[in-house]
């Protein structure tokens, strides 16, 4: 048994959609240390407004356990899998968990973008511009991407709901 299997590290686990709080409650009941980053937002309905706490990272919860105890987490009905790369679970650094805690404690408005940052090389995989490659110039909200197409030297706005944009590995 290796040392990494015995030492407690933070691991990210994927949950079923909208089951993050349920998993957190289950883990708290079993005594397993977990962290579910929650952000407060003011939701508006027709008849009322209410402050709601929702997960910062949809479908993810962080758990601090030795690797050999991963099955204690995976047996929860709403947990799908442990996050890893190359078929190996990958620990999350303590500094990254602490940074998320500090951001949320500071009441700074935090937005989460799923893997895209300015400057990423991307390819459009569907729609009328399918096959075009360029790099990401800007992210505007959750729906629009401004994309610079290097082949034609123009910037365009791409509706993310209609065109699937993927990162290009160079």
In short:
The chain has 170 residues and is of the alpha+beta class. 19% of the residues lie in helices and 41% in strands. The protein has four helices and 14 strands.
How would you characterize the largest beta sheet? 5 strands, antiparallel
Mean pLDDT: 82
How many beta-strand segments? 14
**CA(first)-CA(last) distance:** 37 Å
CATH topology of the largest domain: Alpha-Beta Plaits
- CATH class of the largest domain, named Alpha Beta
Give the uncertain stretches in residue-range form.
Answer: none
What letter string, H or E per element, gives the SSE order?
Answer: HEHEEEEHEEEEHEEEEE
How would you characterize this protein structure?
This protein has 170 residues and is of the alpha+beta class. It has 2 domains: 3-105, NusG, N-terminal domain (Alpha-Beta Plaits, 2-Layer Sandwich); 121-167, SH3 type barrels. Helix content is 19%, strand content 41%. A hairpin with a 4-residue loop joins strand 3 and strand 4. The longest helix has 12 residues, at 94-105. The two termini are 37 Å apart. The model has no long low-confidence stretch (mean pLDDT 82).
Descriptive keywords:
SH3 type barrels, alpha+beta, 5-stranded antiparallel beta sheet, Alpha-Beta Plaits, 4 helices, 2 domains, 170 residues
Task: Map the helices and strands.
Elements: H1 3-6, E1 8-15, H2 20-30, E2 33-35, E3 38-44, E4 49-55, E5 60-66, H3 70-74, E6 79-82, E7 84-85, E8 88-89, E9 91-92, H4 94-105, E10 121-124, E11 133-140, E12 144-149, E13 154-159, E14 165-167
Antiparallel strand pairs: 1-5, 1-6, 1-9, 2-5, 3-4, 7-8, 10-11, 10-14, 11-12, 12-13
